[in-house]
Each structure stands twice: as C-alpha cells, then as structure tokens.
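Proteins fold reproducibly. Consider a sample protein:
=====
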Amino acid sequence: MRIGLAKIDITPRVGVPLCGFGPFLNRVSVAVRDRLWARAMAVEQGGRRVVIVSCDLLGVSGATTAAVRERLRKTVGLEPSAVMIVCTHTHSGPDTLADLIGWGGFDPPYMELLPRRIAAAVEHAVADLADADLLHAQTPCEGIGLNREQDRDAPPLEEVLLDGWRPAKPELTDTTCHVLKVVRDGRVRGFVSYFSCHPVVCCQANHQIHGDYAGVATNLLEREYPGSVGLFLQGANGDINSCVVHKGEQESLLALDVIAARYANAVRRGLHEAQPIKVDTVCTVLQDVAFKRRPWIADEVRAKLKAEETSLADPQATDADTEYRLAVVRTLGLRRILTRLESAAEMSPPIQLQGLRIGPVALLASPFEAFRQIKAEVQAAARAPLALVVSLANDSLGYAPDRLAIARGGYASDMVPLMYGIKPFAELHEELPAALLALDVALDASD
C-alpha cells in the first residue's frame, strides 16, 4: 500500500461574503482567524488508486466537483469515480453554492480559482505516494454536540464550557470519533478524523474566516505532528448542533477554542491508541439515484407563491425583518420550481452517491446532511467492518431528515429545499439508507 498526502490553501480574500446562519445577513469577512485548506489523501493498492479531499468549506456544488474531476483525469489520470470531495461545512467560510438563495453571497473570482486549487491538492498528494501503514481507532468524543431536534436551545455558555459537561441525552448525538493514522518511515505523516456535529460554534455576528471547531482542531494537531496533513470527514450532522450556538461574536470565538480543544483531545487519543489495519484492496463506486419529491403540481405551487407574494406586499413590511427575508427566500425558491414545472423540466433528477473502500473502512457518502438515525440504521446493516456515513460529498443539497422531522415539517424538511429552489423530498428516511447500503454491497462485490 502507498499513501500520499498534501494540502493547498483555499482561503478567500478578506471582503468575500460568508455563508450560513440566516437569510440575506450580508456577512462580509473582515479578517482571517484561521486559514482554510483543501487536504487530500491518495491511497494506492493492487493497481487501484483512490483520493479523498476534505475542504474547509460549507459545501461544493456538483459543477465544482465535475470541474475538479475533469482536471484530474487530464493531469494524473484519475477516473471521476476515484475522487471524493467532502466538506467540513464551516459557516465561517465563503459561499461556494451558486444556486443557494439568500444564505451567502456568491463570489465568481474566488469560484474561478477554487476547482484548480482543490485539484492541485490531489495532484500533490498523488506525487507524494509512498509506502505507508494505516492504523485505526474509535475513541470517546463527548461534550461537543447536542441534538437540536430534541433539545431546542443550547444550555447557558457557563454550563457547557465546564469540564465534564454532557447533553441530557447523549445517545441522540455522536459520542465517538473515528481516527485513521498514516505512518510513514516511523512518523505520523497524516490522519483522518470522522465525527458528526454541525460546525456552528460561531454565530451570525462572526465576520472572521475560519474552519470552526473541526478546522481549528485539525490545524492544532497538524502543528503537533510537523509535516502532517489532517482530513476531517463530516458524519451525520443534520440534527446535531454544537453545544455553543447563536451566542455573541466574542463569546463564540472564545468558546471555539474550548470546543476545538475537546475535539482535538479525542483525535489525539485516537492517534495514540490506533492499531494497524490490513488494507488488501481499495475500490470506489458511483451510483445515481432519483429520490422521490413532494407531488407538487403547478397550480399548487402558484397558490403557495401567491400567499408568499401577498405577505411581501404588506405596506408595513421591512427588509430589516428576518421573517420578511425568509419570505423572500421562499418566494424566489417557489418561482424557480414553478419555472421548471411550466417548462416540463425533470423535477427529480438523479443524485450522485459515492462509496469508497479502503480495506475494512467503507465511506458511504451523499451530498445531504444526514440525520443521526439514518446513519445508525446504515451502520447497523452494513457489510463493511467499519462503515462511516459521510455527509456533504461531491455536492450540497440540504438535509436528509428522519421520518419524524419530515412528518413535523419545518426548516430541515420544508424550508431548506426552497433555499435550493427544489421541491422537498418525500421519503428520504426510507430511500437514503437503502441507497447507501446498495453502495456497501457494490463495494463488497468490487473487492
């Protein structure tokens, strides 16, 4: 087995709008607290080569992924299926999703450079390929997240920052992290950490660029292992927030170091405890899956749109009102949907899922932010000894809510699809686990 690692700086210039937290917030960056990176790991075994790239970004679009893959096909001969691009989902980075309505400010100059920078990280990682050993550990990782569907409000700051704080129902969060350790010539050359938690320690008042808890922790650990490259894989973060959320800017920035230190401690323990794993094969598979959408017809969308436009016409309306700006997001999303319906466009286009196998480790990845229960069901039924459900891979399409959230309605199941201008999904809790398990079967057959 050979492994290569590399990273490339993808920090935007100061002044680029930041993405996340609310509608039309006009969050413009004023400083760089921590630089953002595209970190790549290439693995080669038995004549096969696969690459994972982890980016300190909210997400990437399918178009960006396609551009990166096409460049890599030409420069290093990698087939599209051999490249997986994942994102940490920081809300303190640039808007990288052109179709996202109201949640950032798309910057074309930055986006023109981004695919080349991501591809460069892979090219350097491929050039770095050399004999290496891979080790694995699963360690406790607690005191970071809480389930935002069950615990609507984060506890007071002075409570959650105490050593030993735990949520009331830790079983509704991720309580362990997985760590892969790359050893070459007797030293740590790199590592991969996997954990499920929305990176929202910082807040809408924050105007500094950084990678939130995952980015800060990874930077810290890389400094402890000079010359190493650390990748972060986002798990089922759809319904798990950090324990510090929606605080003031200074409170959030101070808490950021505390939460990042907790995560770094868990990964550090994993690096100490990691044991060798046998990598006798690497393989990857892409599958396009059409997921059911709500059966909205044009007349139904017109009625919804009329109601939104009526509220916007209120003489007392002001764009300083968050509810007004949310109504604008819904209005623009419904207009996109209606245009597609009236033009007879495909309303349920296939969505690309990817499976990637490195020995006993299977990454079962989708462009959604999966809810915790979906991850639990997939891991319980998967064939792979170490099945990791990865969110925000190769595209970004909002949440994959569980059936309770879909039945209840609201932000995750109803609002976010309108931010993308697409019809809400109807049965993701049933369909996504089945599709991810189909990837697991396909990887098993490819071994």
Remarks:
- Residues 298-342 form one domain.
- The two ends are 15 Å apart (CA to CA).
- Residues 249-273 form the longest helix (25 residues).
- Residues 60 and 367 are 9 Å apart (CA to CA).
